[in-house]
Amino acid sequence: MRNRAVTSGLGKVSKGEKCNVVGCAQVAVRSVSPDVAAQAKLDIGGARRAYLCRAHYRELKKRTKKDRQIEKWRFMG
Ligand SMILES: [Zn+2]
């Protein structure tokens, strides 16, 4: 059975979409909310949706994860 691409929901990006981090022109693989992008200090030039290439998505995951872990560590003292 072949699944048709689901266009709704978060995460997936349609083909041909470009990463909109300032200074980057790679093909986007994921989209996230601008809030999340800002949290990871990715400059998307005020776009309403952050489209991220593989490298920037990885960076975002890394940064947001690290922030969360640091918070946890602080609590654990
Ligand atoms: Zn990028």
Quick summary:
The protein is an alpha+beta fold and 77 residues long. The chain contains two helices and two strands, in the order βαβα. The chain has a two-stranded antiparallel sheet with strand order 1-2.
Structure report:
- The protein has 77 residues and is α+β, with helices and mostly antiparallel strands.
- It has 2 helices and 2 strands, in the order βαβα.
- The longest helix is centred in the C-terminal third of the chain and has 23 residues, at 54-76.
- It has a two-stranded antiparallel ribbon.
- Bound molecules: zinc ion.
SSE blueprint and pairings:
Elements: E1 28-32, H1 34-39, E2 50-53, H2 54-76
Antiparallel strand pairs: 1-2
